[in-house]
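Incident log, structure service

09:12 report received: a user says their structure output differs between two submissions of the same chain.
09:20 pulled the input from the user's history:
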Amino acid sequence: QKQVHAAALAMMAARNFEHLIHIVTRDLAEALAVDTVTLCVEAAGDGPTKAPMGGVFVLPAGRVDAMLGVDVPARLEAVEGGDQLVFGPGAGLVRSQAIVRLAPSPGSPPGLLALGSRDEGKFHAGQGTELLQFLCRLLERLFRAWLDLPN
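09:34 re-ran on a clean worker, output below:
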């Protein structure tokens, strides 16, 4: 709980949107004691297929529901290696992952906050997801504020 609170405070201290992305994709790994943290967003129509920032990945449309299940908010599990589309070059070291749905605004494409760990026991099915979901709800609010998106 203390780690999530520290992560939330760090995100709220962002000076701008780019700084927020840097905090999430670079600083949260240490704050949450994981090896990698990425953000993913589904491609929207004819939008970009490559993200403009490191640690951010564009997924094919429908991938979030395919990974989590329709209306499933989060999935924690041990894995043999992370998904390359989600973790990029860090995928090979991932032995457990937490994948949490992001829905910043009505009409915006869905996304994911993905946390990966070398420790196969760090994340597992049956583990509570409330604190990670809280972190994602905060992140959605910060996205709306910085990008002037509707609620």
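09:41 both user submissions now match this output. Likely a transient worker issue. Closing.
09:42 reviewer note: The mean pLDDT is 93. The helical segments are 2-12, 17-31, 63-68, 84-87, 130-147.
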